[in-house]
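Chain A, query sequence.
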Amino acid sequence: MEEINRSLFLWINANGDSPDWLITLATFIARDVIAIVPLMIVVLWLWGPRSQLTSQRVLVVKTGVALLYALAISWSLGHLFPHPRPFAIGLGHQYLAHAPDDSYPSDHGTVIFTFALAFIAWHRMWSGAVLLATGTAIAWSRIYLGVHWPMDMLGGLLVGLLSCLFAQIFWLMFGNRLLPLLSSVYRTVFAFPISKGWVRH
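Chain A, predicted structure.
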């Protein structure tokens, strides 16, 4: 398995012949596209048609729970199965600055794949598919730039699957109490912008 991981990495990883424009594009994808996750969470909670607002907030809470599970599992796996990054062992070419910490599973991969799978499970297939394609692009970019192994990204995908399952179980047990509580806190903290109509009640 390790040999396959290394072979796939070397096949994807950029080298001295790679065009500058592709490295620049990969750098943008690797560093900045992940911002879609907090941005969409905020937008879906604060705005939207009144008829869809409750379902949007259910999606936000379930996705948030899944992300918390995912990050906890990712942290645990990183400590249980430490694995150096490619550049830490002198393999391939590195084009993105990164600390030489453990790479498995990828935090970026874990977050974006969990987010995509949450949308597939609890929103629309098309929106989840778009996010899954976005996650694939992020995964490619971080391998291409030499800071992750392919198996790091596969690990993130599997963690996302498990986390969405845990979040669904959690929601069935506690969702009816959690959503009203969070909504009450939100209405208290955002009372002024709500009164001005800047955000939804």
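The chain has a mean pLDDT of 95. The CA atoms of residues 53 and 140 lie 34 Å apart.
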